[in-house]
Amino acid sequence: MINIQKNRDFLLSEIEKIHMKSFFSNLRIPKLIAVSKKQQDYKIDKAIECGQKFYGENRVQEASLRWKERIKIYKDLELRLIGPLQTNKVKQSLNLFDVIETIDREKLALEIIKHFHNNVKTKSFYIQINTGNEPQKSGLDPLEADSFIKFCVNDLNLPIVGLMCIPPQDEDSSMHFVLLKKIADRNNLLELSMGMSSDYKDAIKFGATSIRVGSLFFGNRET
Q: How many CB atoms are located within 10 Å of the residue 160 CB?
């Protein structure tokens, strides 16, 4: 049986330890985002019972089924969309997620602003950067990042607070984290969602403000 309490305690301890030794120790400790996609209900309930507040989901429909009743009961949870967002799911997403991390194209940004108002649940957004320029992955070309950020912030007046990336599996993640931090710094964005189960330690060293952890938190998904 997976011991979620033990896993969470270990991760929080590691995050704090690495953060305190990093160049960013004067900033707040990075948030632990538990990636709950495809996890079984008992694991989700156990995580909530252990005090975990922050969760990441990849698919809108799946997230809705898993969370729409739970977020009515537990008012202090923060739900984040960390997977690709289709334009036809924008309206639903804005009423489900507190944070959307995956804006990556003009058409999507325009659709979001069309439905964005004070009463939606989503209050902040990240732009996803495809730091490895991988054709199979979502995310913006790094060379287009500055102009797209300015478009979203200045032209659309969207509350963009940070950047997100998923480095290529076969490359050292560190250089991708450095690139994301540089883009964020020159655009005055403070939040960096980077690092997963395999590379979260490096992400913290390079300035992550939140890390997205699935298997180390919940254990392997059960089929």
A: 22
**Dmax of the chain from CA atoms?**
51
CB 15 within 8 A of CB 216: no
CA distances from 108 to 77, 150, 154 (A): 26, 15, 16
**For 83, which DSSP code?**
S
How does DSSP classify residue 143? G
At 13 the pLDDT is 98
Nearest to 25 by CA among 207, 158, 223: 207
Note whether 210 and 191 are within 8 A (CB).
Answer: yes
In 3D space, the residue among 53, 54, 52, 71 whose CA is nearest the CA of residue 5 turns out to be 52
pLDDT above 60: residue 1: no
pTM: 0.96
- For 4-218, CATH number out of 3.30.1330.10, 3.30.420.40, 3.20.20.10, 3.40.50.2000 equals 3.20.20.10
Measure the N-to-C terminal CA separation of the chain; round to a whole number of Å: 15
Q: Spell 107-131 as b/e; 16+ CB within 10 A means b.
A: ebbebbeeebeeeeebeebbbbbbb
Measured distance CA(215)–CA(198) in Å, rounded: 9
pLDDT value, residue 223: 55
Mode of pairing for the β-strands spanning 191-193 and 31-35: unpaired
